[in-house]
């Protein structure tokens, strides 16, 4: 046992779940003449002294239970916002970014570019600060005619390749349902950053391409991944990244590895 001062990087109410918090013993404040505490009023010098002692913890401030708690809060914050693609209220955006920063500050994989085997496979987009608003949304028919399905990213580390897949559903025309596929190459730029180069893109089926043909450059400009990506958080099921355009991406590992072929 030792007397120590603990000052977490974030308020305890944000970092430590209520059932994990311990209430320290009270240290009364002494008034120059009398001291008033929950035990009553004491003349100066006659009040008992209480010393708070904190048990030293070798496991650190943030443990597995805390990670689980923060991730649970993040998942709850992401519910019902359609991945943020059509914008979210500023308060909600701030809430999400605060939770992201908490996870980033305790990243269990500090050198993700050197551990790319943890990045390989299929990922599903949960949230992005990329938005399609106003006239862009209207031009792309994303108000009533076309709806966005799931967003997936498939990463093949052995080939240094990544494929982004954006699903589309056309109301009343199932034959037009399809996807935009964007293929890219990446190379390691630092211990946490990769540089991404655009390779090619396709829309299938052809009927869906005909729908987007007039505004294809607009569509590609929104989803083109070219630039660099900083992997700021990585564990077995969740990945967070920030790109050179100040966007945030939150992805969850997907078990469906047969969504698309990288060949």
From TrEMBL:
It is found in: Plastid. Residues 70-251 form the Plastid lipid-associated protein/fibrillin conserved domain. One of its GO terms (cellular component) is plastid. InterPro entries: PAP, PAP/fibrillin_dom. Pfam families: PAP_fibrillin. Keywords: Plastid, Transit peptide. Belongs to the PAP/fibrillin family. This is Fibrillin-5, chloroplastic isoform X1. The gene is LOC107404784.
